[in-house]
Amino acid sequence: MSGPLVVLVGPMGVGKSTVGQLMAERLGASFRDTDDDIVAEQGRTIAEIFVDEGEPAFRAIEKAAVRRALAEHDGILALGGGAILDADSRALLAGQRVAYLSMDVEEAVKRTGLNAARPLLAVNPRKQWRELMEARRHLYEETATAVVATDGRTPEEVAEAALDALELKEA
């Protein structure tokens, strides 16, 4: 299998970066996050891209970042929360080892505070988070090799559960 060892998908604030770094350490692999790639390439935050250019422009940038990372990276790869919205990106995930990190809205509130730094959650964050998840949950599940619940678990526990679910052994 070419491409990343594991791809992490899930909603914003679920802990893909934190868990991904822990998994990478345990497997002796490298870690990469497409959101970080985008910020480095664009020289501005994702929120700024949304404000300056709008969501469609951001999604085009994200699609290119996902394609590049899937082709180049062989460690643990975390995708942005909305990366699975693109059908081409989902097609590229077919055949990859994909872990969907899930959480419920109450956990999302605790973790992110559903704050204004999240451009898609600026107004009525709980309602918008629920609507985003209703629109995305089936896409996360469709791409996933394994689903790992994060509610009430530490990042270490989630990393362990993901490794177990994917039947990967620590280095």
- Number of helical regions: 8
H/E order of the elements? EHEHHHEHEHHEH
Radius of gyration: 15 Å
By DSSP, the count of extended strands is 5
Major sheet summary line:
5 strands, parallel
Measure the end-to-end span: 19 Å
Q: Please state the average pLDDT score.
A: 89
Explain the overall architecture.
This protein has 171 residues and is an alpha/beta fold. Helix content is 54%, strand content 11%. The chain has 8 helices and 5 strands. A 5-stranded parallel sheet has the order 2-3-1-4-5, sandwiched between helices. Helix 1 packs across helix 8 and helix 4 runs parallel beside helix 5. The longest helix has 19 residues. The radius of gyration is 15 Å and the shape is globular. It starts with 5 loop residues before the first strand and ends in a 6-residue tail after the last helix. The mean pLDDT is 89.
Spell out the blueprint of helices and strands.
Layout lengths: L5 E4 L6 H12 L3 E3 H9 L3 H8 L1 H18 L3 E3 L8 H7 L4 E5 L2 H8 L12 H19 L2 E4 L5 H11 L6
Parallel strand pairs: 1-3, 1-4, 2-3, 4-5
Helix pairs in contact: 1-8, 2-4, 3-4, 4-5
Short description:
With 171 residues, this protein is of the alpha/beta class. The protein has 8 helices and 5 strands; from the N terminus they run βαβαααβαβααβα.
Keywords:
single chain, alpha/beta, 171 residues, 5-stranded parallel beta sheet, 54% helix, 11% strand
